[in-house]
Amino acid sequence: MKESKRKAVSPEQRKREILDAAFAVFTERGFAATRIEDIAARAGIAKGTVYLHFADKEALFTGLVAGLASPVLAEIGAVAIRDGLTGRQAVTLLYDTFVRLVLRTERRHLIRLIISEGPAFPAIAEIYHRDVISVGLKALQQVLSRAAERGELRAPAVAAVPQIVASPLILSIVWGSLFERLEPLDTKKLFDAFLDTLFMPPGDA
């Protein structure tokens, strides 16, 4: 298609517009059904313009993940190295960050996309694991290792399996996608109950 006449934009702004369009179309149609021309049409540009910035759909997805995840990972990383927090306080802050920046925003659709299409398209699961999951798990492991050293964990072995702590986050996404209209999930109660099973009561550590 021909690009509509409009004020010239910088390469970075154009790239941002393409990524915004890609996110919208991926969310609506899924990764498999989305074509580069669909993204170009949503952005109001020619198909060739997309290829000036991204080699293919996987490159687009990589850029999308980086843009959406960077603010979340920055906050998670800051919590992981913050002094003066108990393990429970740190994990609570991590959960709060997830709710505020993922569960209550459009970012949740990206995780749903990974869950639904990752098995058929391993490349997008690998991208998300490399750029997001592995970074988040490293931060969780830092928090849990310190908690184990201070005797705060009911089962110190949990420090070696940070995926356990991430499980309520995945549950909240899956439940919200499938069952929220039938039975809403109180994520605060879920997280608090899970933390009770994970950490020793205050004063017992």
Automatic annotation (TrEMBL):
InterPro entries: Homeodomain-like_sf, HTH-type_TetR-like_transc_reg, HTH_TetR, Tet_transcr_reg_TetR-rel_C_sf, TetR_C. Keywords: DNA-binding, Transcription, Transcription regulation. One of its GO terms (molecular function) is transcription cis-regulatory region binding. Residues 35-54 bind DNA. It comes from the Bacteria. Residues 12-72 form the HTH tetR-type domain. The keyword DNA-binding applies. This is TetR/AcrR family transcriptional regulator. It comes from Metarhizobium album. The lineage of its organism: Bacteria, Pseudomonadati, Pseudomonadota, Alphaproteobacteria, Hyphomicrobiales.
